[in-house]
Amino acid sequence: MQIPVRCYPPKPDKVYLYGTCLVNSFAPESGLDAITLLQHQGIEVVYPAGQTCCGQPAFNSGYTDEALAVAKAQAALFPEPWPVVILSGSCGGMMRKHYAHLAPNDEQLAEFASRVYEFSEFLLHVLHIKLEDKGESQQVTLHTSCAGRREMGIHPYGESLLRQLDKVELLEHNYSTECCGFGGTFAVKHSDISAAMVEDKSRNLRESGASQFVSTDWGCMLNINGALEYQQQPLRGLHLASYLRQRTLPEHSPEQE
Amino acid sequence: MHTSAQQFKPQAHDALANPVIRKNFRGAMDFLRNKRKGVIPDDAEFHALQKVCEQIKQQCLAELPELLEQLEKNCLANGIQVHWAETPAEANAIINALIDKHSGVDVVKGKSMVSEEIGLNDYLDARGKSCIETDMGEYIVQLAGEHPSHIIMPAIHKNAQEIGQLFHDKIEDTPFTTDVDTLINIGRQQMRKRFEHAHIGITGVNFAVAETGTLCLVENEGNGRLSSTAPPVHIAVTGIEKVVKYLADVPPLLSLLTRSATGQVITTYFNMISGPRKSDEKDGPEEVHLVLVDNGRTQAYADEQFRATLQCIRCGACMNHCPVYTRIGGHAYGTVYPGPIGKIVSPHMLGMENTQDLPTASSLCGACEEVCPVNIPIPTILQRLRTQLNQGNADKRTLRGAGSARKASEAMIWKVWRYLCVHPRLYRLATQSVARLRKLVPLVKSPWNQGRVSPKPAPKTLNELLHKKGKTNANKPWMIV
Amino acid sequence: MSHANTSNPNGINKARNNILAKLRGAPKPEHIATLERPTHNWAEVADPIAHFSQIMETNHANVYRCNQADLPATIEQLLAEHQLTSTLASKDVLTYFPELERKIPLAPQTDLTEWKDQLYNHTDACLTRAYASIAATGTLVLWPGANEPRCLSLVPPCHIVILDTQRFYPTLANFIEQEKLAQGLPTNLLLVSGPSKTSDIQQTVAYGAHGPEKLLVILLDTE
After folding, report:
1. Secondary-structure class of domain B40-298 per CATH
2. How many domains are there within chain C?
3. Are B364 and B413 in contact, with CB atoms under 8 Å apart?
4. For B241, which DSSP code?
5. Which residues on B lie below 8 Å from A39 (Cβ)?
């Protein structure tokens, strides 16, 4: 299935931020870094406090009624016509592609989904951001989530953003298009297979020679970082929002703000 | 070695622990992926042709009953006899009766996954008939007492070393060798006499053309041609979904089939059979039979979304690109059709109660859908199958064995999850409590911990941090930060 | 309407009726895109003969080219080159090129069962004529029939085939359309795109799996 071609709006004054459940609980600094970057582009960021989860875990587990109830609750929290910037290609894919599967005739869900932009997509195609690299020379590699790649088509965007950084060398890693093995409950229900996949993924990332890997999805990173930590390897993944903030706005770290 | 879909988990576990399996499959999948890429250099061309192929199959499925009748009528007019079977048992009985009618005992078979699906070899074996597989890969797995591990390359799980040993052990006066040309020549010689003297030839069908009553066979080796040409009787067995309306439907489907399957712009042979030999012909079968098999396909057909499963043209690209199949190989699935297509077609053939672990054994990464030449939305269908597996409402259980994997505890977890997710205050309380207990997380062991440490929650959630930082809008439930 | 399976009285027609009834009972799709079956060429081929030859050779066939006057000499040359001593020609090819019978004898004109042993075990090569060719995929179209048994191009280890260079079609779709094949097909129409091969052992290509190991294509310039 080809991803539909998307028309982008002009730069808005205000956006909603959808942090995602994983960022909320496991990586709040990614949310803060994303906000800092957006604010420095002159954008006001609105964070609906009632946001919880996009519904994907239940949907992927076959609990569609539960997923739909949660999806509707989310959409209702974003009533204004502002773009919704989301910090995950996977949750973005859930909204953009699968909300229509949950409720094909639900206009509110459809309208909401039409305004959802993955973070790197938003920086590149709506803000047309120009990044000024203030960091040291570094070699990085990029892992794009499968949903980001195949449901949202964002894999070139992260690459484009990283290539704007003068002192950053973007390295390819082998089997970059292959899944890391996360897949939500798959990682628990079929942990053997999932573990074999993440073992390969983490090795391929390490063998790229990069000292840092970057991703737009915390789902994959919890998986990959967990494997790297288990293997006692120093390499870790960082959300693209945090990486870009560190490289371009090093003085604005969340702790100092 | 016989595997079963009910034993998927232990079989997958064993396969993962087997370094030879891992290496053979990884190498083979890399090879097939690269081959495909070599003949699909242009995404735009692929997507255009993919759309055409998808629409052809959708249209043919929309008219399936009419097309089957038209196929039957035109086959009969061409002298091809048509038989219908709802179940594997019926299909086997039809074929067995045909063999008996011709007092046949020596049967040669060209590669046919439907014949695997109905368990034809074992059926004939039990009735004293020898059905030899003639496709080199199928011959190898038959010799080893195994089943195919891939629908296009049946012996892909074996390397030359293993095959050399197998030939040495099983074929008289065969010295051990790993030279592939020598091994193939041994196979060729073994089967020459069989072709020369066989009573019956059995093959599958890649496309059955309704308009002309034509059976099309795609192959490289020539064993399909021999099986359908040399013996006096040719029996073709196929699923009801293989019918296409027009002869003109064949070129686009064939083009994407061979490119997707083996990375060839066309296979060595494309064989179009439109009848037994005419009276003035000097060779070719005197009788041609077509056996149309249902075996669960009508169940898939009954649901518009599951119907897309029947668009499949059996190229195997989905398994070649599947990260799960690449690691566990074909046998672990315990089904005739492994990989992504196997996960969505087997529940209809075997019942969900017997294939419970298949729909969940996917990260839904979408690699299969991306390469599917007929655009089958495999991940979406897997998700639908999962809802059927867990379906609590008896009225909504439309598939055989639906609801069989429902666990009350799991259903309860999702109910609680839903409750929390639609009650933000409770959700905040819950997530903040977990954050406070973060030090305990490493103590909770779960299957996740296989090769991974558990992720530790942050000390404070994003929501908490923003509450401190942002200004809460008095009238609206959001924070401006 | 009569059905072939009336010879199977044990409820096989029941299977037919059940299958069709189940299919007819299923919901009709709300929307099916009406598809114009494409008849255009999938790939434009600039120089069909060169393209054909290149693909054929990539697929391990040997391609020769000559005019009609040189045909006997070409045949003689390739028989020597490939050390082919026991050969048979189809009646079809010798009707077109009677001068070749001095090089390759006519295959027996009786039912194959009577000379099966000769063909299976004592024939190096057979000579037949291609009906046409498809440039895009490097494919020969064979049209076996009364004057060209199917097994001639299949059983011996070498197949020699003469292709008229006037008989090129750009694509299979184009061939099917131009030849109006939907209105009538022979009992067996074959597309052949190289010698028999297999990659079933460790993805290593080996030729001559079951069909001919060698495919010698003679492109014949007529006129």
Report:
1. alpha beta
2. 1
3. no
4. G
5. 481
